[in-house]
């Protein structure tokens, strides 16, 4: 069993209150225009016309060669955190995603990175977790490499 893990609520609330992002900048405030702005906390699309934040996120605790930083969207107002094994809304929109397994030291486990059809995300994640050296998996955009969510063992 797997779990789709969204950004922790304390981090989301800090950014929603104006705390600096991974580059030390305040989150940019915008209004969602159309669809395609996935919130990394509720793992839903930010509704058109709703406030949203754009900020730099590094989904790792430390700085090291594998600690990628990139842009993400977040609801500007408090939203409930996605919990559980259900496929999040934001992962049902694209035809495919890049999945990469990481070890306990936050290093990519080579041989696990693969572009996977959206319908196969859960199955591929289960297969990657058969490796004992994989601690967690990142789901990223297959086109822009943007961080979407984390997958953990359930």
From TrEMBL:
Xref: Pfam families: DUF1203
InterPro entries: DUF1203 (IPR009593)
Protein name: DUF1203 domain-containing protein
């Amino acid at each position: 069993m797997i779990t789709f893990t969204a950004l922790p609520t304390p981090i989301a609330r800090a950014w929603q209150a104006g705390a600096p992002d991974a580059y030390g900048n305040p989150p940019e405030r915008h209004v969602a225009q159309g669809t395609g702005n996935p919130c990394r906390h509720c793992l839903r699309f930010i509704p058109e016309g709703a406030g949203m934040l754009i900020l730099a996120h590094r989904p790792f605790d430390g700085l090291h060669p594998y600690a990628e930083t990139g842009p993400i969207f977040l609801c500007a107002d408090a939203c409930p955190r996605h919990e559980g094994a259900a496929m999040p809304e934001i992962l049902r929109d694209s035809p495919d995603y890049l999945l990469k397994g990481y070890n306990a030291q936050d290093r990519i486990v080579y041989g696990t990175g693969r572009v996977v059809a959206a319908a196969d995300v859960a199955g591929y994640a289960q297969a990657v977790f058969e490796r004992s050296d994989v601690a967690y998996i990142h789901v990223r955009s297959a086109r822009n490499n943007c961080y979407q969510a984390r997958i953990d063992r359930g």
